[in-house]
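STRUCTURE REQUEST FORM
Protein name: SPT20 protein
Source organism: Aegotheles bennettii
Requested output: structure tokens
Priority: standard
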Amino acid sequence: PSLPRHTNRLINEKSPYLLQHAHNPVDWYPWGQEAFDKAKKENKLIFLSVGYSTCHWCHVMEEESFKNEEIGEIMSKNFVCIKVDREERPDVDKVYMTFVQVTSGGGGWPMSVWLTPDLKPFAGGTYFPPEDGVHRVGFRTVLLRIAEQWKENKDALLESSQKILEALLHVSEIRVQGQESPPPAKEVMATCFQQLSNSYDEDYGGFSESPKFPTPVNLNFLFTYWALHRTTPEGARALQMALHTLKMMAHGGIHDHICQGFHRYSTDQHWHVPHFEKMLYDQGQLAATYSRAFQISGDKFFADVAQDILLYVSRDLSDQAGGFYSAEDADSYPTTESGEKREGAFCVWTAEEIRALLPDPVEGATEGTTLGDVFMHHYGVKETGNVSPMKDPHQELKGKNVLIVRCSPELTASRFGLEPECVGALLQEGQHRLAAARAQRPRPHLDTKMLAAWNGLMISGFAQAGAALAEQKYVSRASQAAAFLQRHLFDPTSGRLLRSCYRGRDGTVEQSTVPIQGFLEDYVFVIQALFDLYEASLEQSWLEWALQLQHMQDKLFWDPKGFAYFSSEAGDPSLLLRLKGDQDGAEPTANSVTVTNLLRAACYSGHMEWVEKAGQILAAFSERLRKIPLALPEMARATAVFHHTLKQVVICGDPQGEDTKEMLRCVHSVFSPNKVLMLADGDSAGFLHRQLPFLASLERKDGKATAYVCSNFSCSLPVTSPQELCGMLSP
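Status: completed
Returned output:
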């Protein structure tokens, strides 16, 4: 390629998203003091653009506006232009997204916000087309109008930005009211179940018409609801809703049937045509959720899907040093000769391509049947393409097929006069050949940034799958990633986590000149991961690190006045608001997950003030939990765990002994949302024995591995039979 005509200071950044904009004809600055000083010194407004590297509409706005010389000139002349990667700086993103949502009723990325020189927002939106259209004002017009307003009505703008800030402070405050206590679990669980049940799609699963997101938080809530109401019709419905949704997603086009893993969301009701980017946080949560579905149902289908996700992540999102990359893009070049990228190009097929790849006659089938016929029938492939024009506004998928399982293996078999057991092997052969053909296509962009929070979610996915599926290799992969976090995203001198690190040019792991400090979500998801990893591996060092991080989280983020944790720490003058997330969405919000973390931490340490903190968080969110728990299904789930008190399952035995392993297999095979597992190996100098003196009084019966189920540190009678232990864990 020819040398770029323009280069701005984003060229010195590490974020793949900022580097994508380093050759725009715009005088971009990264978020930081240099830009703030320039705005103040020159008395200029700031234009803030926030996005992420695998965001489709961010690419569109860049192509149309930020690469346009004339628009670039208007931007640079009138504004100090700042680019932010929302995955690097979720704190900055949340502050201004709160503003955009309150003022426009919607939000999303790219986010475009105009700020006064002291960083107060006064105008904003998301994507703007470059020029005026019938229904929308164009980006060029907006830029010129705002620049004009600043010249003519500076004082009015400053005054209104101050009022907006005061209103935002008021709207976004979450705090405990008076003497509020945690809301009653029964009521919160019942309301949340009812709200999910009312929005459930009986035919296709999921909880909305379209678009449809995987939202694992909903499914995890339903599993816990079922576990606490197994014998009731509501309990049975909760389980059916969750398992049906997981099945429909796995059959749908949102699931990549050729190269594994899940796309971000479906644009239609049927889980068929997705937005094709693949995010690490989805893979981590879904691997854990499918593993739980297997634990509960015993249906190997769910175990296979969990393994499929972990294969994708191990192959395509793993750094050689042990960390996990953030995402793969939706857009790519259809062929090596193509001049422009298209959404989904890497993943979709014409009928002709599939026929050419699978021409072999199928033995034992109706005459003339080829492997292509069987494959196309099973995956809903049509000659003219299977994507409705309604779902393809830019005609990028015309004539193409997104694979979706349309038949059971039995139906496909009977259609071609085959035995059902042959179909699996035929489809697998088809998948291998299509995967080989896809490997020749240009790959989508890979975001090689490694984030502590998302690595935490993925470690949980590997650890939980390793335990539930009894696969040691997954537990080892989780340990390798946790060691990576300790090496590259933790500062042992300060005891603090870092937010991000990056793959360098030569494949080494790099850090920015000024590393970004970890946010609340980094601590919460990493602590959760370390507890999950301890339960899967029984390595006490992970437990010790988790408890150290929990103390650090308390110190940096706890709100002693209003309770619960702030998303970002105090002391950053460029952050106008310290917010508390109040929505479990594609990822759970940090305060929701931390409730269960605190309860687990108390069980492993005996520090009961952590139980008190968990209750204070629930009290701070009490009103929301009573009225719309649907917005916080993970916190609603945690409310039940809080009220039912965690069961400490203690196994006294030799970690290498066969009898101990059998006991552990039994614990891992049962879904019990309120259990905490620990191994008492008799080493009185070990970390757990030092933390929990009561373990010394528990002994092995007749020299055999012995289990105790304890609650609030008082224990049941000893049990030496794995079957009996299983019975105690599943009521």
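Reviewer notes: The longest helix spans residues 233-251. The CA atoms of residues 101 and 107 lie 5 Å apart.
Form closed.
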